[in-house]
């Protein structure tokens, strides 16, 4: 009470002052300035009073304050805008804080009239013709407060809606709408919309609303339709949306009809206005309005969206029947808004709407259906925004439908088809050029190092996208698919795809497989997610089983298919992913599947497509970890039997793609010689392939690569390695060596046999055929007859040895066959093949030399081909051939002697060619002319000189090592030995070489050393008196170049002098 | 015979059949193959006496041992846990190898190591026979009533084993597990039959019937008369060369013989209206002949390295299975489950339902059980598995 009095005193002062001013203004004594001052003072007091002591301020005080203002307003015709504005502000405060709901109806009516007039754009009967924003704003706020006050009492509401006030009501609404629509600034629009909302929503009854409906709707539509030239304040939008919602709900809502029937006694006007017919008419007009308004769904502000969502909800829940034609629009807007805004009130509202009315569910389903039908078209377009929107729109719809447990059978089907079509269109090459981008398939070896790359995350690149646009599109489809699959592991979804999978072709099939893969992946992931364990328990752990099974079966058959036409690598990639998924799901159990699943992966690994290789490796990694192998290598080695079978069947079926040999190569390298016994029939198949396809040098080369890999591994076989040690190794041969060059031997020779047959030493090595007298030389060097006798023993010996070990293991036969086969391919046109064949022989010879019965004939078979290689165009082939000769000498020993004798001149020529490389071309050509002509390859010498140093060195080194072997393992004639010394003159420091020479002829070696200055010249022993000969002079160090000639002269001369001396 | 030619052309229009798998591991000739335990295992015996028990689903050996010191003439199974092997070392062994024991055995195949002795299964019986020829043993249940119960019954049922006797052409029948000689069947009286080459026994019309194929090319059916004497009820010389194999077909009631010559012969069993029929195949040397369990088809293993499948009804060739480069010596069909075959077409959904509950290995086992395998063992030491008809 205390406060009230005090307040009253404060107000009184201002009120009195204003009243006086008003009175004097009336009489023309005061100008408007004073009025304004006084008013402002009062307004200030009132505002501060109501804000600080709002509870004290009551209707009576309001009445008191209003009095002078009312007095002033009587002169409104002349009052300035500012004056009116402040008055209205004041009144608004009074209504808001003072009267509140107790505002006298009469006063309210008057205020409405006043404010309506003042808020009008061109008010009537005033000193000015146009209102201002401020005045409009003030009057609208004033109206707002009046309406708010009135709304709280029935009587108040009636005041405005009774028949008499009706025209004025229309006027007011019109003014408000004008203000909102055309208001120049934000403030009057906000105020106007607030007032309008207060009026329409809270004050007037349904009957009045119905009456004003057409006008209101059309004006509100204009306001709410988004326009580029004018952006409306969000508050305005929210209020207007609210008004519209209330209007529609109350006038054309479904419940309205029921309630009106309840109150039959209600006025007849209502019955006529809201008749069914009227509603139908309204509906047709409202629809375009709504569709315009719904463009707000993309408004930036969430609160606006929420209001729009409320309007939509009204349309759906309350106007489902009457405004049926708007339901779809509303639903569409709701879904659109929900799709961009997760977990919003909109979504939950929508969900409950769907739950309460199944007909909406049906509507949503058909809408989704339509959307899906257009999906492929949208995805083909170039507007990424639309694509994104469509994607999220579809997922939102789908999610909602699943959440409200709608029947998804048809939808799933359509969805799958839509996704498939979209995917197929997306991955379809856009131009012919892209289509041709498939790489040609050169045969290239897949290195083992690909297996070393261990990636633990089994990441698969996007298999389908070949360029960026595709990828984004696919990602969109992917996101839809993931959502769909998450909710629906149902078979209906999968059966659709699987049904199509096997019968579709090309991109469509790829799309189908892709979908199946994705959906299964998601289903598997969901089923294994920890929080989903309980959920899935009732369905059994294999809810995804069927699709996984289908996926696996199809993937396998796709990969295993061996058609002539190369398959689309994208399809293969997806299939690989399918296998990996199955493996990951099955875990250790997948070992049982490896019999079928492992080979196809290796097969694709051997394709030239990089992407496929990577995917294959990922798949192998997945296998490895799923099956619990330590490494991919283990995976292959432990399942090599399966691979063998697969490869053998492939080769047997004359499938001559390069993959099977590639895989075999990999297997042999990884699994080693233990695998070889199983490869017998495989090798046979390869031989058959070699026979049938010898015209394909690349394939032949690849096959031989495999064969030489087998040979290398086979040569390591313990059975063979052991027998090699037992057999006559180098040691045995050494003792068999030619050793007559000891001084004693020489003396014996000179004294005994030499006079009988001078030519013997030189004739023997040149003429003899494979004989084996060397074995016995040691025992009885002088007895030539004994040699012949012992020969039989020597020949028998290998028989004995061959009988001792168990029959040759399978590996031996394998190696033997491989080696034997090389003869047909040694003249091949491909230099690399020739070289690799020669090195293959080098590898296998030590292993197969064990069984002389078959080995020696084999040498006989191969020899001509090997010798022919000495005239090869390619120096490295020549070098290899020389090496092979050396190896043969090592393992076949003296069996080779006659052959070496024959080939010796050629070897020396080759050596000369290497040493004479600095000389003019002509000379080197003539040096080997006869051989060149014989072999009809005039170009050979040219290529020799072309290759210069490297090739010469290569050949020289090969010659040196071969000469060493020849000297070491064969008996050589003195002439040959001399020449060998010549060839080896630069290699004398090598221990092996030296040892070999030493064992054969230490004296000759010594002589060479002396000549080369490595050893001091010995003192000449004194010649016994009166002998008709003298010691030959040792060559001087300086004349090294002529070593060969001198050496021979010395020895020959020596012998000659000695023999001449004899008698 | 004239009708066979177009048929051949027809079948060769199809892509040549490929084996589903080739089991590698024996070094010596395969002389016998046999499916057991619902086709989950395959038993193979080779010329060096090695026996391998293969896990059919995963195609790997589970047990390898050297059962005999000489050629393995025949292998068979008795129930699920007993394996019978018959070698030229004059022994017939019955081994006990229960599924749960398998893990204890060596799986190293002879091809990797043919010298090391492996652990042998528990030897239940070992009969010493006079085996100088190539005739493998034959067996049937001891009591005819039990034949209806199927071979898979777990109960200890006794069996009869027929083996070549001491004298040329004689047949000894021994019961197991009692190891009691039940009968000795003499050779034909008027003919010089030579050695017994193939034998089979079955219960028919309440009595034991023995069928014998002889070196002379004769085939004979023996039955006991009222005085318990064995007498021939059928004799026929269908072949110019020794009989190599014979197998019984119960529907219609007959038996087929194959020989070193090119003829396949059908002979009636006692009481049957089937007529004797010869088919000239033009492929001499058909070492093995076997019926599938449904008896709709039979197959021969030929020295030309091919296995051939024939229709029982028409005796026409249906397929040529060519893979081996050397002669085929042994052949076996997997047992076919009749009921499964019938439901196969109609009840795919049910199948899928069942399938879903199985683990990967179970699925594989199920597949192995139901596949219509044909196993052919060859001189090259390999066994090819075919999935046909």
Automatic annotation (TrEMBL), chain A:
Residues 8-338 form the TTI1 N-terminal TPR domain. This is TEL2-interacting protein 1. GO terms for cellular component: cytoplasm. InterPro entries: ARM-like, ARM-type_fold, TELO2-interacting_protein_1, TPR_TTI1_C, TPR_TTI1_N, TTI1_rpt. It comes from the Eukaryota. Pfam families: TPR_TTI1_C, TPR_TTI1_N, TTI1. Residues 778-916 form the TTI1 C-terminal TPR domain. Residues 756-807 are annotated as: Disordered. Residues 779-795 have a biased composition (Acidic residues). PANTHER family: TEL2 INTERACTING PROTEIN 1 TTI1 FAMILY MEMBER, TELO2-INTERACTING PROTEIN 1 HOMOLOG. Residues 766-778 have a biased composition (Basic and acidic residues).
From TrEMBL, chain B:
The keyword Membrane does not apply. Pfam families: WD40. WD repeats lie at residues 23-64, 374-389. SUPFAM superfamilies: WD40 repeat-like. Keywords: Repeat, WD repeat. Belongs to the WD repeat ASA1 family. Component of the ASTRA chromatin remodeling machinery complex. Component of the ASTRA complex involved in chromatin remodeling. This is ASTRA-associated protein 1. The gene is asa1.
């Amino acid at each position: 009470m205390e406060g009230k009095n005090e307040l009253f005193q404060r107000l009184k002062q201002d009120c009195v002052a204003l009243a006086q001013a008003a009175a004097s203004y009336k009489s023309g004594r005061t100008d408007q300035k004073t009025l304004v001052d006084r008013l402002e003072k009062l307004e200030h007091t009132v505002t501060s009073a109501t804000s600080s002591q709002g509870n004290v301020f009551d209707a009576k005080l309001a009445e008191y304050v209003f009095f002078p203002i009312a007095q002033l307003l009587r002169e409104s015709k002349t009052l300035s805008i500012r004056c009116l504005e402040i008055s209205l502000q004041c009144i608004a405060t009074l209504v808001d804080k003072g009267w509140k709901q107790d505002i006298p109806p009469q006063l309210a009516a008057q205020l409405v009239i006043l404010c309506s007039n003042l808020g009008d754009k061109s008010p009537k009967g005033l000193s000015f013709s146009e209102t201002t924003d401020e005045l409009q704003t003030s009057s609208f706020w004033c109206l707002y407060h009046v309406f708010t006050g009135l709304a709280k009492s029935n009587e108040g509401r009636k005041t405005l809606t009774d028949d008499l006030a009706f025209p004025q009501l229309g006027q007011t609404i019109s003014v408000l709408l004008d203000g909102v629509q055309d208001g120049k600034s934000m403030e009057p629009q906000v105020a106007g919309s607030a007032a309008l909302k207060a009026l329409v929503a809270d004050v007037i009854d349904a009957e009045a609303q119905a009456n004003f409906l057409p006008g209101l709707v059309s004006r509100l539509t204009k306001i709410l339709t988004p326009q580029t030239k004018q952006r409306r304040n969000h508050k305005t939008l929210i209020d207007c949306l609210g008004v519209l919602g209330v209007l529609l709900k109350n006038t054309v809502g479904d419940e309205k009809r029921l309630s009106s029937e309840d109150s039959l006694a209600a006025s007849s006007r209502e019955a006529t206005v809201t008749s069914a017919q009227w509603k139908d008419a309204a509906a047709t007009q409202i629809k375009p309005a709504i569709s315009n308004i719904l463009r707000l769904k993309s408004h930036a502000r969430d609160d606006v969206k929420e209001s729009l969502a409320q309007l939509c909800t009204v349309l759906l829940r309350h106007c489902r029947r009457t405004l049926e034609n708007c339901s779809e629009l509303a639903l569409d807007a709701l879904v659109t808004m929900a799709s961009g805004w997760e977990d919003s009130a909109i979504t939950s509202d929508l969900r409950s709407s769907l739950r309460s009315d199944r007909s909406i569910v049906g509507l949503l389903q058909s809408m989704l259906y339509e959307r899906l039908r257009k999906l492929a078209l949208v995805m083909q377009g170039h507007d990424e925004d639309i694509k994104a929107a469509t994607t999220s729109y579809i997922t939102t719809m789908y999610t909602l439908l699943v959440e409200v447990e709608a029947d998804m059978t048809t939808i799933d089907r359509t969805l799958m088809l839509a996704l498939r079509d979209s995917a197929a269109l997306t991955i379809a090459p856009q131009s012919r050029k892209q289509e041709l981008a498939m790489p040609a398939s050169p045969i290239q070896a897949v290195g083992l190092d690909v297996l070393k790359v261990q990636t633990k995350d089994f990441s698969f690149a996007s298999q389908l996208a070949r360029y960026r646009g595709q990828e984004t599109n696919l990602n969109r489809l992917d996101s839809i698919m993931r959502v769909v699959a998450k909710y629906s592991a149902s078979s209906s979804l999968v059966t659709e795809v699987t049904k199509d999978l096997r019968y579709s072709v090309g991109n469509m099939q790829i799309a189908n497989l892709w979908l199946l893969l994705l959906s299964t992946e998601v289903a598997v992931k969901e089923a294994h997610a920890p929080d989903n364990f309980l959920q899935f328990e009732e369905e059994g752990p294999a809810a995804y089983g069927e699709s996984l099974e289908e996926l696996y079966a199809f993937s396998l058959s796709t990969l295993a298919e061996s058609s002539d036409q190369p398959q689309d690598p994208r399809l293969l990639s997806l299939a690989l992913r399918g296998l990996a998924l199955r493996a990951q799901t099955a875990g250790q159990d997948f070992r049982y599947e490896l019999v079928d699943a492992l080979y196809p992966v290796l097969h694709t690994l051997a394709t030239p497509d990089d992407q496929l290789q990577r995917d294959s490796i990922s798949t192998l990694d997945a296998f490895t970890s799923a099956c619990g192998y330590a490494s991919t290598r283990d995976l292959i080695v432990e399942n090599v039997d399966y691979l063998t079978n697969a490869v053998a069947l492939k080769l047997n079926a004359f499938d001559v793609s390069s993959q099977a040999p590639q895989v075999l190569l990999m297997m042999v390298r990884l699994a080693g010689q233990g695998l070889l016994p199983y490869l017998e029939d495989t090798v046979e198949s390869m031989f058959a392939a070699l026979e049938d396809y010898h015209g394909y040098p690349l394939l032949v080369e690849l096959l031989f690569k495999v064969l030489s890999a087998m040979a290398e591994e086979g040569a390591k076989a313990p059975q063979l390695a052991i027998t090699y040690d037992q057999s006559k190794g180098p040691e045995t041969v050494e003792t068999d060596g030619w050793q007559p060059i000891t001084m004693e031997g020489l003396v014996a020779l000179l004294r005994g046999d030499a006079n009988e047959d001078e030519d013997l030493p030189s004739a023997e090595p040149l003429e003899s055929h494979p004989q084996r007298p060397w074995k016995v030389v040691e025992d009885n060097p002088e007895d030539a007859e004994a040699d012949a006798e012992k020969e039989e023993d020597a020949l028998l010996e290998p028989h004995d040895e061959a009988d001792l070990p168990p029959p040759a293991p399978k590996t031996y036969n394998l190696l033997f066959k491989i080696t034997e086969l090389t003869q047909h391919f040694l003249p091949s046109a491909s230099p690399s093949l020739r070289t690799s064949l020669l090195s293959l022989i080098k590898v296998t010879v030590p292993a197969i030399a064990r069984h002389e019965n078959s080995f020696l004939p084999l040498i006989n078979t191969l020899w001509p081909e090997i010798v022919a290689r000495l005239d090869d165009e390619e120096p490295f082939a020549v070098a290899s051939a020389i090496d092979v000769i050396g190896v043969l000498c090592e393992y076949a020993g003296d069996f080779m002697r006659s052959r070496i004798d024959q080939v010796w001149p050629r070897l020396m020529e080759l050596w000369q060619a290497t040493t004479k490389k600095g000389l003019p071309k002509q000379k080197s050509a003539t040096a080997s002319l006869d051989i060149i002509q014989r072999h009809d390859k005039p170009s050979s010498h040219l290529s020799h000189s072309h290759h210069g140093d490297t090739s010469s060195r290569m050949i020289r080194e090969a010659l040196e090592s071969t000469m060493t072997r020849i000297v070491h393992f064969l008996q050589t004639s003195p002439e040959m030995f001399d020449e060998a010394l010549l060839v080896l003159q630069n290699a004398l420091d090598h221990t092996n070489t030296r040892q070999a020479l030493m064992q054969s002829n230490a004296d000759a070696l010594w002589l060479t050393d002396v000549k080369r200055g490595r050893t001091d010249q010995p003192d000449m022993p004194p010649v016994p008196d009166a002998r008709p000969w003298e010691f030959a002079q040792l060559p001087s160090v300086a004349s090294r170049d002529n070593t060969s000639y001198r050496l021979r002269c010395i020895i020959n001369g020596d012998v000659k002098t000695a023999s001449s001396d004899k008698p | 015979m004239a009708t066979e030619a177009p048929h051949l052309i027809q079948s060769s229009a199809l892509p040549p059949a490929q084996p589903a798998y080739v089991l590698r591991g024996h070094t010596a000739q395969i002389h016998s193959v046999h499916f057991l335990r619902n086709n989950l295992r395959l038993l193979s015996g080779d010329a060096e006496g090695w026996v391998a028990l293969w896990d059919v689903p995963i195609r790997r050996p589970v047990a390898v041992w050297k059962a005999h010191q000489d050629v393995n003439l025949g292998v068979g199974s008795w129930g699920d846990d007993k394996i019978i092997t018959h070698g030229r070392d004059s022994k017939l062994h019955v081994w006990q190898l229960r599924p749960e024991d398998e893990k204890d055995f060596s799986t190293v195949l002879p091809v990797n190591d043919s010298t090391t002795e492996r652990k042998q299964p528990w030897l239940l019986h070992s009969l010493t026979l006079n085996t100088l020829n190539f005739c493998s043993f034959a067996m049937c249940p001891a009591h005819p009533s039990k034949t209806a119960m199927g071979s898979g019954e777990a109960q200890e049922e006794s069996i009869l084993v027929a083996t070549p006797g001491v004298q040329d052409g004689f047949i000894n029948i021994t019961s197991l597990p009692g190891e009691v000689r039940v009968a000795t069947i003499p050779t034909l009286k008027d003919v010089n039959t030579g050695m017994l080459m193939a034998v089979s026994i079955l219960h028919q019309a309440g009595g034991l019937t023995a069928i014998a194929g002889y070196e002379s090319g004769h085939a004979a059916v023996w039955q006991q008369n009222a005085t318990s004497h064995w007498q021939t009820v059928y004799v026929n010389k269908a072949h110019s060369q020794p009989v190599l194999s014979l197998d019984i077909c119960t529907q219609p009631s007959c038996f087929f013989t194959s020989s070193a010559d090119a003829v396949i012969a059908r002979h009636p069993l006692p009481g049957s209206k089937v007529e004797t029929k010869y088919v000239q195949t033009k492929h001499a040397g058909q070492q093995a002949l076997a019926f599938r369990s449904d008896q709709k088809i039979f197959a021969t293993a030929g020295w030309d390295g091919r296995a051939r499948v024939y229709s029982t009804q028409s005796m026409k060739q249906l397929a040529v299975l060519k893979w081996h480069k050397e002669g085929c010596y042994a052949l076996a069909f997997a047992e076919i489950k009749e009921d499964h075959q019938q439901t196969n077409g109609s009840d795919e959904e049910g199948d899928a339902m069942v399938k879903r509950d199985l683990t990967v290995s179970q699925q594989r086992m199920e597949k192995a059980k139901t596949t219509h395998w044909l196993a052919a063992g060859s001189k090259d030491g390999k066994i090819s598995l075919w999935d046909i008809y």
